[in-house]
Write a structure and sequence with these properties.
By secondary structure, this protein is an alpha/beta fold. β7, α12 and β8 form a beta-alpha-beta unit. The strands form 2 sheets. The chain has an 8-stranded mixed beta sheet, with helices on both faces. It has a two-stranded antiparallel ribbon with strand order 4-5. About 40% of the residues are buried. Helices cover about 40% and strands about 15% of the residues. It has a domain of about 270 residues: Rossmann fold (3-Layer(aba) Sandwich).
Length: about 425
């Protein structure tokens, strides 16, 4: 689908996408430079201290992290090998923007080393604010504004910020959560109750008829929950806004040919809170299932774009209406990404068919709270959210609290546990 909007909006969207691609491309020099600082710090120490640390294998660990970073970079470069699938033209004449020391770190480590499944509807519209659906504890995720260049000037490649790289590192951890054996325990805590609630709501429907019921998964991330729902036989559509998630999910769903095809090292970016080397350096194989193994005739798609713009517009595309057309909406770690939670719940209510079900699981880490971009932010308590849902026209049942982590390193000495709210809500009016 072609991009719509003003010329300025389209240009801003294309600039943002190019910056994301550049972040992927510059992962290796950025991460290697950070790791090389450890090497430099080591050499500032007294000889006796260095000898003691060497006896512990500290230098070997730094070298092993270099190799792991290069393995990650090889995978990330595969993910962005064909960015034109998203309908953006990238400038071929952009020069890499590497500081001299970053280039040196990259060169030091360089020597170390279709089956289409999900149809991607590209529905990105308007300016991008790059609001990632991240629930990491470090920060809320906001990034705004294009990077303009004089017309006719040869552009240097965008230099990613630490915030950009944090999103990319989070993407690697999301791959563990959604597409690895190690992530299964975390997935099961979140996805299994949601799938069970969905099946319970449609328990009178024979399995062979589930294809007639449409399920929407907003904030689909890397697509595993939506894939699982399609694998149950439902017609399922995921929706995601983050380019980091969209690039990685497209690759996993459409460009992987076998189980455990790729190996990544998602935990090598921090030396803190590691009880042993394995916590830092263990490899993670992905994917744990073959994404192309959905049953023949499965109806599974991903829509790229902003949830409110795509599903909340009253001026709908006649070829793909949404009002009253969805039998279920599953929101997992999603509703707190709202600027205005009232609008989110109104949209969910409007697009559900009468008697349709909304299954929710997640915390209330309001992503726009305290933003510096002058965006509005409404932050309610859990009780207020549930009261609001009832006022809008939902009957809430099956309420409980589920303790779960989110992209957690299971071997780390530090872990954040969410007391996530779970409920099933039926559209009654």
């Amino acid at each position: 689908m072609p991009f719509t909007g003003t010329d300025a909006q389209i240009e801003e969207e294309q600039t943002h996408f190019a910056n994301v691609i550049s972040t992927f491309q510059q992962y290796a020099p950025y991460a290697l430079y950070a790791n090389n600082r450890r090497r430099k710090d080591f050499h500032t120490l007294p000889l006796a201290d260095r000898e003691l640390l060497e006896s512990l294998g500290y230098k070997e660990r730094i070298n092993a992290v270099d190799k792991a970073i290069m393995t990650n970079a090889d995978f990330l470069n595969l993910v962005i090998a064909n960015p034109e699938i998203f309908g953006h033209d990238l400038d071929e004449d952009e020069e890499p923007h590497l500081d001299e020391h970053e280039g040196d770190a990259s060169r030091q480590a360089m020597h170390s080393h279709d089956h289409p499944q999900a149809e991607l509807h590209n529905s990105l519209q308007g300016p991008s604010h790059s609001h990632s659906h991240s629930h990491s504890h470090e920060s809320h995720s906001h990034s705004h504004g294009p990077h303009d260049h004089p017309h006719g000037a040869k552009k240097k490649r965008y230099k990613p910020s630490e915030h950009d790289m944090d999103k990319l590192r989070s993407t690697l951890k999301q791959l563990v959560r959604d597409w690895s054996v190690e992530g299964k325990s975390e997935r099961d805590l979140c996805y299994e109750p949601m799938k069970e609630a969905l099946l319970q709501h449609f328990s009178d429907i024979p399995a062979e008829e589930r294809r007639n019921f449409r399920v929407l998964v907003p904030g689909a991330g890397l697509g595993r929950l939506a894939w699982d729902v399609a694998n149950l036989g439902f017609a399922c559509q995921g929706n995601e806004f983050s380019h980091y998630m969209l690039l990685a999910s497209f690759y996993m769903l459409n460009r992987t040919a076998q189980v455990n095809q790729h190996t990544i090292y998602p935990y090598v970016h921090s030396f803190s809170n590691n009880p042993n080397n394995d916590a830092l350096l263990r490899p993670i194989a992905i994917p744990d299932v073959l994404p192309s193994s959905l049953p023949d005739g499965s109806d599974f798609s991903l829509v790229a774009g902003d949830f409110e713009e795509i599903y909340g517009s009253l001026d709908e595309d006649p070829s793909e209406p949404h009002s009253g057309q969805w039998d279920a909406v599953l929101t997992c770690f999603f509703i707190d990404t709202a600027k205005n939670i009232v609008n989110y719940l109104r949209i969910i209510h409007r697009i559900l068919a009468p008697g349709g079900v909304w299954v929710n699981l997640g915390p209330l880490l309001w992503h726009w709270e305290g933003n510096t971009s002058n965006d509005p932010s409404v932050e309610l308590t859990l009780e207020e959210v549930k009261t609001l849902a009832r006022k809008i026209g939902f009957e809430i049942s099956n309420e409980r609290t589920i303790d779960t982590t989110y992209t957690n390193n299971a071997q780390s000495m530090l872990g954040y546990v969410y007391h996530a709210a779970f409920w099933t809500a039926t559209k009654i009016i």
